[in-house]
# Entry
Amino acid sequence: IYTEQLKGLVLAPGVIGVGHNLSGNRVENQFTPMANVEWDLNPRTMLYASATSGYKAGGFDGRANNPYSFEFEDEKAIAYEIGAKNYLFDRTLELNVDYFYTDYRNLQVSQFDGVFGFNVGNAKKARTQGIELDGRWAITDAWTLAYSYAWLDFRFTDFQNGNCYDGQVPNGVTLSNGVHMCDYSGETGQYSPKNSAALSLDYKRALDSRWLMTGSLMYNFRGSEQIHDNHDPRMQQPGVGRIDLRIGIEDKNWRLAFIGKNLANEKVLSYAGNVPLTYSLFGTNTYFAFVERPRQLALDVSYSF
# Structure
């Protein structure tokens, strides 16, 4: 049971909220079965399939400015996956591949309400599917290549009650209190790049009976993705690749390494949103955003007792 009372809340100079009383209770019972099947086709190949269901409990959003958004429903999902794990070329190459599909009901989402807060709500239907591929290749005794690739297709299949981004023309349902919402059906979600990949080339070799030389060159790529809560098209993050490097020597006690991260000094936004009240009070579409760290260079020296 949750009860909240807000009275005389000051939103901004000259703007005072009338406040509202919120109360509610929920009782939930869920059954989440799961089934897994594995088949060892031969000593080098294993096939598998799974089907599972899951849920996330519903609840109450005490921050909601709109009393009609106070309660959100439980989220349910049914997921399917098939795949294979393989060893090839005298077990020097590992190759894993799988396909997954998940169907969501009442997917819980958090979006900016257009005033000064975020509301938790439910997208009626959504689905995600994708293909993942990963593995390692022992090129020689000293060199190892690790790789991964993912293709992701996430869509809201029925989400007509989303919060609009600042300046968006409402095209979704109208709530009982007269608030007009926006329809995100058919759109992808936040942080859902179509393509992502990673490569890592690792090196390890003994210099003498004491010292070991190690190195790792890594490349990570994320395709274009939406980073705005309310899917403002101006906040679509372009695809970007990052390069990291680590070279060092070590023995049983000492470790000395040079570390470089984001060597190409890529400028990447990790999150963007609208500044509260700027549009509702002044009609300006003002953003704030978080920027990931630029190029970093470091020297790591450590000693283990």
User: Anything to note?
Assistant: The radius of gyration is 25 Å.
